[in-house]
Design brief:
Elements lengths: L1 H8 L22 H23 L5 H15 L8 H16 L3 H25 L3 H41 L7 H11 L14 H17 L4 E6 L1 H12 L2 H4 L2 E6 L3 H8 L6 H10 L4 E5 L25 E3 L27 H18 L1
Helix pairs in contact: 2-5, 2-6, 3-4, 8-9, 9-12
Length: about 375
């Protein structure tokens, strides 16, 4: 941004390989390494844009058919609902399940970006800048577009930083970019040694406080239903592993919108594995219910499809709930039920799960 502003202020007289330095003018040119970085950033942005446009269209028809089958299986009234309503629910499922397919895509993008970074670093050390190299290889016709793309990268880097700052400020005020907040919570879950430039890890304070509070409640003879939504479910699971045995006997766990199974298990398999999740369940004597939806892009099932059969206690943890509640307009309302996605509010399924866990705790006490 600094060099771009200088370029504007001096009316385009800053030097480039295609536009040599005017006689007597002081030198004004960013380091060669910076020019290669800006060129690589522009190429990376183009790659991301092309991928974002193409990937959703790959096998879109099959994903839509699968989602529509789910809708018609869950809602017997689908044949009487408006086609637009069925399509809206179908598309919500497709969008939510798209995040499950991003793993290979992100790995490929990481490899490509790593190769671009290494190439740019090597060229910045042993060779000229991108503009000078293009001028040498293809003359001015090749140098001009390369210089333009390089200068564009400098502007994009500055714009990217500003966009990140704005998105961070409004992440929890806008649904479409709430993913930024989710990623932030994912990063700040781990100790600061894993990301030294980030704010302090909130788990280091939250888990001891939860553990202490649960210990106080159970010491007074109370049963505790620990409820955690989204990343709160991860906090709850970690807290269960920290509780002494005398506390766990009077604790049950309710999770909903939980990324434990479909996110943490995949991204951090060394820490959140099937063994770790089963350890949480066994320490609670499997007093654990997890509510999940097909339309949730962040949360999902914890154990499905990793259960060993109907006799596996993990098979009783995951409870899928319909979202939306129905396709038709209820008699007591004027609009059909909304698609909630990752938003969970106390409803019939929630209260039923709480009641079931309370009954299990009472049977344990008895």
């Amino acid at each position: 941004m600094t060099y771009g502003l200088a370029e504007y202020l001096d009316r385009g007289s800053s030097p480039t390989p295609a536009r040599p330095l005017p006689p007597g003018a002081p030198p004004l040119s960013p380091p060669i390494a910076y020019r290669w970085v800006t060129l690589g950033f522009t190429l990376a942005v183009l790659l991301v844009v092309v991928t974002a446009l193409l990937v959703p269209r790959i096998r879109r028809a099959r994903r839509r058919r699968e989602a529509e089958e789910l809708v018609r299986r869950d809602y017997p009234e689908a044949s009487r609902a408006a086609p637009e309503r069925v399509r809206a629910v179908r598309d919500a499922i497709v969008r939510a399940r798209l995040t499950d397919r991003l793993g290979p895509l992100l790995a490929t993008a990481y490899v490509v970006l790593a190769l671009l970074t290494l190439a740019a670093a090597g060229l910045s050390v042993i060779g000229p800048g991108p503009g000078a190299l293009a001028l040498r290889l293809g003359g001015e016709p090749l140098a001009r577009p390369v210089i333009f793309v390089t200068d564009l990268g400098a502007l994009l880097i500055g714009l990217f930083a500003m966009v990140l700052a704005v998105m961070g400020l409004v992440a929890y005020r806008s649904g479409p970019i709430r993913l930024v907040g989710v990623l932030w919570e994912l990063a700040t879950f781990w100790p600061r040694a894993a990301h030294p430039l980030a704010p302090p890890c909130y788990v280091e304070r939250a888990v001891p406080e939860l553990t202490r509070r649960i210990g106080q409640l159970t010491a007074d003879g109370n049963g505790v239903v620990l409820s955690g939504q989204s990343h709160g479910s991860v906090l709850a699971a970690v807290t269960i592993l920290q509780l002494p045995d005398r506390c766990r006997r009077r604790v049950a766990l309710l999770t909903y919108g939980s990324p434990l199974g479909n996110r943490y298990r995949r991204i951090f398999p060394a820490y959140v594995s099937d063994e770790m999740l089963r350890e949480v369940g066994s320490r609670l004597a499997w007093r654990w219910i997890n509510l999940w939806r097909y339309t949730d892009a962040v949360g999902g099932a914890v154990f499905v499809p990793f259960v060993g059969g109907p006799d596996d206690p993990a098979a009783r943890v995951d409870r899928r709930v319909r979202d939306p509640k129905g396709l038709l307009i209820p008699p007591t309302d004027t609009v059909p039920p909304p698609v909630q996605g990752h938003r969970f509010a106390p409803d019939d399924e929630f209260h039923a799960a709480i009641g079931e866990l309370v009954e299990r705790l009472e049977r344990t006490d008895g």
